[in-house]
Amino acid sequence: MRRLFLKGHISEKMEITGSDAHHLMHVLRSKVGDRVVVADDDGIVCEAKMAAFSEDAVTLHLVRIIDADTESPVSITLVQCLLKGTKMDFVVQKAVELGVDAIHPVMSSNCVVKYDKQKQEKRRQKWQAISDEAAKQCARTRLPVIQPICTLEEDVSKLKKNGTEILFCYENEEKTSSREALSAMNGSDYAVIIGPEGGFTLDEASMLRDIGAVPVTLGPRILRAETAALAALTVLQHDKGDL
Questions:
Q1: Pairing relation of β-strands 165-169 and 102-107?
Q2: What DSSP assignment string belongs to 35-66?
Q3: Tens digits of per-residue pLDDT, 198-238?
Q4: Number of helices and strands (H, E) in the chain?
């Protein structure tokens, strides 16, 4: 059954509007009695059936609550420096499948991509749409959030103030593996920082260390930025999460 995310809370009668309603009516050509899975803002999941259609909304009636929590036991934020082309699209999609709660796209010194304010918001909206669709496809119970683009230093400073355990994958780190670093961490909130295609500058690496982020290696081979993101998230989920 198709999965939908409801703004608000599950009740006996619910209404779906916007692009989801359009998709149900005009793409899937749904009929009264067809059923869907619905997840609300609290992560509660239910099965519902379509009861009525209007010009821009679909009315659903609750059938049953489903015990289907698919979220990781730890909260994970991916801080991803901007990548070229469609690489960011790929990272967003796969990171959501791997269970991240939030993705923070950030600007760093070696980022080739430069967006003005208007383009930044358009890109954020595009990545949020990719995230939402990935969450539906892989049966998430919560929608991950794509934060507005900001600088690397601004973003990481905020994370540290919140008590988040922070790893940054650094090509010049030769000793500490991500698994070794994680073994010394026992929190419930984690962030993984991945650099752009050109990696971090020495000043950025020093800044991250000063803030309290732990530099880690992902092995002897140089990974592409998009590969590094997925490898680091997989290791974190295997060590602390649900893989």
A1: unpaired
A2: EEEEE-TTS-EEEEEEEEE-SSEEEEEEEEEE
A3: 999 999 999 999 999 999 999 999 999 999 999 999 999 99
A4: 7, 12
Q: What is the average pLDDT across 168-173?
A: 94
Asked if 80 and 227 touch (Cβ cutoff 8 Å), the reply is no
Spatial separation of the C-alpha atoms in residues 207 and 76, rounded to whole Å? 21
Cα 154 to Cα 89, 112, 168, distances in angstroms: 23, 19, 15
Collapsing DSSP to helix, strand or coil, 177 comes out as strand
The pair of structure tokens assigned to 117 is 């304010």
Residue 93, classed as helix, strand or coil, is helix
User: Which pTM does this prediction carry?
Assistant: 0.90
Mean pLDDT of the chain: 94
Q: Half-sphere exposure (CA, 13 Å, Cβ side) for 37?
A: 19
The pLDDT tens digits for 83-118 are 998 999 999 999 999 999 999 999 999 999 999 999
User: Helices 87-97 and 225-240, interaxial angle, to 10°?
Assistant: 10
Tokens encoding 62: 């609750």
How big is the chain, counted in residues?
243
Contact (CB, 8 A) for 52 and 33: no
CB burial of residue 23 (10 Å; 0-12, 13-18, 19+) = middle
